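Example 9 (inverse folding). The structure is encoded as follows.
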């Protein structure tokens, strides 16, 4: 097998493969030519060409997220690797194993006026699990060191908690020469380290659990297979425990779990707040979307607040953290299952009663709601075919989705690590590419869609991807949240635009459909979800521009509040 003539780069590629990297997203360039040549030549690597580095990184991150395996990205030097930064930061805050291979100019050319040259070493130091750099012309001994560095980086990427790693690779010309690989690198694969739940920890948990009459478990973002609902069996059956989740937790139990946090909180009056504030708060999973629940716990601090799970850094979201248990949630809940249940408290039942009542009002309001963003989400979520993956872009889309109970059997995805709008479409496309046996429905706002429109500049898009864009004429989130809507500069936040979604679709050969009313939206779903013979996704534009969507939403919460 011919590969790049630069032997330590060929070794790096083989080390990546031995550590489980089978997919690599490359962006064209010259300085990374040895990497492209070696990666493309390797029989165990599938190469995906994506021109735009920012989109490429999010596309790779989606593949890594769905496969739960490391995926590599590589680009040329200069400004190109800077475009990777948004996806790397998202991967860092979501524990996704992304292997970042950036080609670089030789060290002696940095800051010397050479083209496409910046200071790339430690470029991502504030949001990367580990940064490494290989030597340019390694001797035999240095090549062994280079191999050791590569092994260390790849081991670090998949060691729990997982995360992105960066290997910077200075390269001198010639860059395009090839040869057979005559030597093999040494492969070092570390065994996973099991976290320990000590007897001291168990005693602390047992004591506080038995003393607390009002226990609340708040679960943030989890991958679809991170935690099975059966793992919560011990607490689901405990009436002293309230369980609050968001759709991104991918946990569903409609009899005991409160699925719509903001909707439920809205029906709790000020006089009742103390009855719903827990003594013991247990949090697990990733980011929490609801700003209301964050404010609730910051104002009504629990006596004890535990965080359960293996994370890259300590996090005290509610400013009341007592203790972190850096163990698998399954281990924690298995232990809880051995403790006696407190049947004297109906704290969990109280929360669920409010959730049921809020859900009834929700349904009554939607039955009378005219065409708007809120009504569109009801129709969209109801029409998604069974067992699909639902992808939610950030800003208003992910918040609207949390007002509705999760659709049974669906898996929910969203870039909530950093919560940026800059790569949602690309991420969904990456996940769709890996999960070809499932329909992937991506819901986006118009601003998010335009921001990541280069996601459609990708020859690896698959026909199992459906894109829905809510076109309300700009950043609708700024009409919803407090502050911007009352500002004299509100137009700079909402930021209306004249760009056409249909034109973007035409540019990238994506089929475009549109609906501007309840009747049109209901009628278009059959065509939208129809299985197609071509290998292209389909986009549905739901046009709600010119409608007072923010008033409809405010009336929604007002009706729940008044009840």
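The amino acid assigned to each position is listed next.
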């Amino acid at each position: 097998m011919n590969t790049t003539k630069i032997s330590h780069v060929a070794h790096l590629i083989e080390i990546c493969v031995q550590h489980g990297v089978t997919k690599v997203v490359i962006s064209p360039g010259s300085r990374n030519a040895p990497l492209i040549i070696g990666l493309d030549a390797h029989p165990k690597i599938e190469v995906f060409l994506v021109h735009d580095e920012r989109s490429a990184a999010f596309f790779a991150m989606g593949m890594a997220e769905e496969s739960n395996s490391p995926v590599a990205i590589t680009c040329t030097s200069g400004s190109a690797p800077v475009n990777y930064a948004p996806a790397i930061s998202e991967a860092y805050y979501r524990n996704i194993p992304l292997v970042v291979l950036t080609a670089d100019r030789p060290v002696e050319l940095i800051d010397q006026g050479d083209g496409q040259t910046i200071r790339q070493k430690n470029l991502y130091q504030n949001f990367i699990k580990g940064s490494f750099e290989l030597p340019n012309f390694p001797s035999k001994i240095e090549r062994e060191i280079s191999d050791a560095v590569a092994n260390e980086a790849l081991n670090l990427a998949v060691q729990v908690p997982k995360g992105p790693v960066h290997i910077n690779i200075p390269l001198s010309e010639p860059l395009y020469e090839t040869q057979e690989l005559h030597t093999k690198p040494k492969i070092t694969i570390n065994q996973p380290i099991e976290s320990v739940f000590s007897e001291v920890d168990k005693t602390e948990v047992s004591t506080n659990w038995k003393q607390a009459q009002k226990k609340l478990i708040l679960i943030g973002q989890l991958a679809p297979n991170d935690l099975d609902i059966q793992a919560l069996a011990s607490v689901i059956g405990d009436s002293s425990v309230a369980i609050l989740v968001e759709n991104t937790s991918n946990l569903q139990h409609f009899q005991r779990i409160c699925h719509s946090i903001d909707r439920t909180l809205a029906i709790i009056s000020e006089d009742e707040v103390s009855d719903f504030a827990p003594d013991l708060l247990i949090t697990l999973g990733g980011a929490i979307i609801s700003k209301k629940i964050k404010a609730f716990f910051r104002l009504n601090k629990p006596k004890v607040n535990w965080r359960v799970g293996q994370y890259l850094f300590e996090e005290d979201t509610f400013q009341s953290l007592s203790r972190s248990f850096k163990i698998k949630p399954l281990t924690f809940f298995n232990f809880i299952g051995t403790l006696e249940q407190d049947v004297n408290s109906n704290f969990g039942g109280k929360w669920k009663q409010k959730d049921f009542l809020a859900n009834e009002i929700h349904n009554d309001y939607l039955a009378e709601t005219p065409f708007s963003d809120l009504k569109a989400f009801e129709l969209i979520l109801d029409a998604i075919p069974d067992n699909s993956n639902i992808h939610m872009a950030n800003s208003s889309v992910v918040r609207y989705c949390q007002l509705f109970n999760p659709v049974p059997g669906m898996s929910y995805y969203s870039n909530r690590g950093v919560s940026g709008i800059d790569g949602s479409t690309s991420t969904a496309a990456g996940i769709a590419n890996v999960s070809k046996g499932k329909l992937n429905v991506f819901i986006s706002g118009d601003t998010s869609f335009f921001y990541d429109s280069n996601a459609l500049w990708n020859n690896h898009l698959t026909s199992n991807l459906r894109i829905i864009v809510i076109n309300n004429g700009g950043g609708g989130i700024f009409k919803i949240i407090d502050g911007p809507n009352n500002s004299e500069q509100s137009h700079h936040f909402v930021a209306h635009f004249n760009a056409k979604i249909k034109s973007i679709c035409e540019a990238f050969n994506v089929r475009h459909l549109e609906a501007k009313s309840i009747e049109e939206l209901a009628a278009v779903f059959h065509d939208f979800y129809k299985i197609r013979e071509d290998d292209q996704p389909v986009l549905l534009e739901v046009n709600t521009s010119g409608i007072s969507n923010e008033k409809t939403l405010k009336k929604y919460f007002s009706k729940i509040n008044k009840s």
